[in-house]
Amino acid sequence: MKQIKMTFILFVLLLSSAQLSAQNSEVLEKDLTGYLFAYFGSGQNGEAIRFAISLDGYNYYALNDNKPVLDSKQISSAGGLRDPHILRAEDGKTFYMVATDMMASKGWDSNRAMVLMKSTDLVNWSSHVINIQQKYAGQEELKRVWAPQTIYEKETGKYIVYWSMKHGDGPDIIYYAYANSDFTDLETEPKQLFFPKDGKPCIDGDIIHYQDSLYYMFYKTEGHGDGVKLAVSPSLTSGKWEEKEGYKQQTRESVEGSSIFKLNNSDTYILMYDVYRRKEFHFTKSEDLENFTPIDHEISMNFKPRHGSVVSVTNADLRRLILKWGKPEGLSQLNLLFHPS
User: Fold this and answer.
1) By CB count within 10 A, which of 65, 123, 205, 267 is most buried?
2) Angle formed by the axes of helices 2-21 and 315-325, to 10°?
3) Alpha-carbon distance 35 to 332, whole Å?
4) Looking at the domain that runs over 2-338, which CATH code has it been given?
5) Which residues of 21-53 are buried (b: 16+ CB within 10 A; e: fewer)?
6) pLDDT tens-digit readout, 68-94
7) Residue 93, exposed/middle/buried by CB under 10 A (0-12, 13-18, 19+)?
8) Which pathway does this chain act in (predicted)?
9) Torsions phi, psi of 263, nearest 5?
10) Average pLDDT for residues 158-182, to the nearest whole number?
11) Segments making up each domain of the chain, as ranges
């Protein structure tokens, strides 16, 4: 019976894929039917990228039995990958993923690089290591390069990669540079994107373009409060960020690695973060990106993620992932695949 269900699932996904390819390459929101969660894990061999899928944004199932989907030792310089961030490009068919090139066992000030990855099917990825210290002059005192992310800048039609860096005894500051057209390198010098007015360290920046008008950046106050704060700006690179009061996490525990995403065909946003000292991952929801309600009791996962990100996917995307990695254990109800609750 299960085999019959699986065959039918793949048939319908194949049909959906054919229909989608006949449409414009731009993916419309109505075409988005699920979610892909990219994350890394804990313990030995944990610093590698893993994937999970969800049909409703609340219930997640690990692909490939929660084993890595990419070989960190082959595509990184340090031997490990952390903090993966995945973005669907404006053409609707390309995906960009970036990650920290690092192994924590070598020390928190040991890494100088990030990895840029690109795919058109979420299965096969090209990759390039970008060592900031080697690439740019004046980086002799660079200690670490953490948590890169990518966002599209409509004003320039380019993709910005942003990340935090620490030099010498100075604080962690969020910088940015423009990626080249084929996403194999950075083509501009790093410039400061954001630094809090209080002059204290900030890491794990995560930016979303809200209602096509403002950029909302969630970031971690590193080493002082260890929570998630919010800054808002009409422009990514103007430096005109309005820092909002208070913390956005809905816990008194230390958190990091926040990531925001919008539920498909909805006005609801999900803010998730790594409660790292307790080895937990918490979820909250919001309609306005400023007031958040805990929804941990509504979330289920058959894995324990660390810092990661979620991107919306289509039936065609889900089909490719399932064909490559198999149907995840626990995802057996056919109705859930096409009628998310």
Assistant:
1) 205
2) 130
3) 17
4) 2.115.10.20
5) eeeeeebeeebbbbbbbbbbbeeeebbbbbbbb
6) 999 999 999 999 999 999 999 999 999
7) middle
8) Glycan metabolism; L-arabinan degradation
9) -70, 145
10) 98
11) 2-338
